[in-house]
Amino acid sequence: MKERAQKWAELEQGWRAGMIAAQAGDRAAYEKLLLELLPYARYRIARTVRDRSAQEDIVQNVLLSLHRARHTYRPERPFTAWFHAIVRNALVDWGRAHSRRLSREVSFEADPAFEPAAPPETPRSEPLSTAMTEALAALPASQREAVQLIHLEELSVEAAAALVGVTPGALKVRAHRGYKALRARLGSPESGAGR
Amino acid sequence: MTDPLIRELVQDLLPVKPIPRLRSVALGLLAVFAGVLAADWALGGAEPRPFQDAAWSSPWYLAAVVGVTLLAFGALASALASAVPGRAASTRIGLRTAVAGTVLALSGWLLGLASGAPDHSGETLRGITSCSTRALVLGLVPALGCAVFAVRAALRRGVSTAALSLAAGVGLGTAAVQISCPSNSPVHQLVGHLLAPAAVIALVTVPLAQLMWRSARRD
What we know:
The complex is a heterodimer.
Chain A: H1 2-23, H2 27-46, H3 52-68, H4 79-104, H5 130-138, H6 141-152, H7 157-164, H8 168-186
Chain B: H1 2-11, H2 22-42, H3 59-81, H4 88-115, H5 125-152, H6 158-180, H7 186-218
């Protein structure tokens, strides 16, 4: 947990510096930043959308949105929360467009299922078990969100709290309650039922 | 496909100035509103009720004043935050505050109606139109300021941001009218200070949203 927090703190620092340099017009820093963010965006999107071509469309929308909204990042705010909000907005937009499309079209073939892309250096890339997925779905929305952000997406508590809009302490409480409920549902934590 | 896009975005990169802090923008808009209000008073607009006025000791009147103020502040916070990625929590809190303010103001006026104390027999359409027009005029500049900020930032939900911007501006106007209107009638206040401006907001929201989208695309 401490190592993960350390890793996120380092990434956050690097990305924040990259974004500040990009706002000042530093192209090399901007390119480095975009290339570093790309796998994280792909990973986050692949967790929600299975169609690979759609994934790439959303990734491109994320990059375009980030480019257009780069002036809305303020250096004193956490970069990760800002970036995740852009990814989340792109996913929501895609979801809306997809639903509209589906409501108008009649498909004769099932969508091919793809394995989600694994992000580099992300230790939790293996898929969740069915039991864990069901247990997560049964949690109250606030606890599920806390567990997903901290435990599954491996954000630092500070970044996740900024994203959700609560204090780190409040998020920890939600996550703790979520873990407790998951343990109660899945059995002991050592059973490995979730993985 | 993504690598060429990154190259293109990098080539397209120009220095940008980060948007100001939302708190500073909100304070700036409130300062502008204070200026509009001062100009209105200087030009002979109705001034606030004196503190000795009996209305200040009436719970329903106070609830209405606090309610419309909360509505304005909440809508302002929500409108500004809704155009900045990563500020979903502020958007939500602002929206909840605005809704709570509306409920409080409505409760105040309904309480006033139920208590039956104020006389509203002499209520005229002219009085209602005058107050609602004043609330709209006073709130116009902060509402537009809010909308301009949203366009300059990263406008995402045009209609809701337009509605919140209008609610913020007109809410401020309504708060000013509420404390300066000489009428003690809850019917007059409910219709002239809230419902009539709300109806205008409902009519103007979609055209403003379309204008905001067009401006955002041009930017």
